[in-house]
């Protein structure tokens, strides 16, 4: 068994299914349960594929407005293919908290 040390504030991957991508979480608390197991209270991050089309449209609208406001020449010069790749690597922070067994990290 690998002994890993995690701290509050660490970003971690959780596996909920071997057929799905790993879940990305940030540890907010680590607690020992009555039976001696460790649970992690985590904040959830989501990929574009995990959120509704309405929220994606809203996020894209605000991103475009921010790009225009900042007049960022580096983003303007990126080919569409690279912009597309960046969008699919983008993560969205939620306010959702979960308690998960630390053994799933």
From TrEMBL:
GO biological process: double-strand break repair; negative regulation of transcription by RNA polymerase II; response to ionizing radiation
Source species, domain of life: Eukaryota
Cleavable signal peptide: none
GO molecular function, one term: transcription corepressor activity
Transmembrane segments: none
This protein's GO CC annotations: NuRD complex
Residue ranges constituting the BAH domain according to the UniProt record: 4-105
Pfam families assigned: BAH
Family matches, as PANTHER family: METASTASIS-ASSOCIATED PROTEIN AND MESODERM INDUCTION EARLY RESPONSE PROTEIN, METASTASIS-ASSOCIATED PROTEIN MTA1
Name recorded for this polypeptide: Metastasis-associated protein MTA3-like
Taxonomic path: Eukaryota, Metazoa, Chordata, Craniata, Vertebrata
């Amino acid at each position: 068994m690998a002994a890993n040390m995690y701290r509050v504030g660490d970003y971690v991957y959780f596996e909920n299914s071997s057929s799905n991508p790993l879940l990305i979480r940030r540890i907010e608390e680590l607690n020992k349960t009555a039976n001696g197991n460790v649970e992690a209270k985590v904040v959830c991050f989501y990929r574009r594929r995990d959120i509704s089309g309405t929220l994606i449209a809203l996020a894209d609208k605000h991103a475009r407005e921010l790009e225009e406001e900042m007049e960022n020449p580096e983003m303007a010069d990126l080919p569409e293919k690279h912009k597309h790749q960046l969008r699919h690597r983008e993560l969205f922070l939620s306010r959702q908290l979960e308690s998960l067994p630390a053994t799933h990290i």
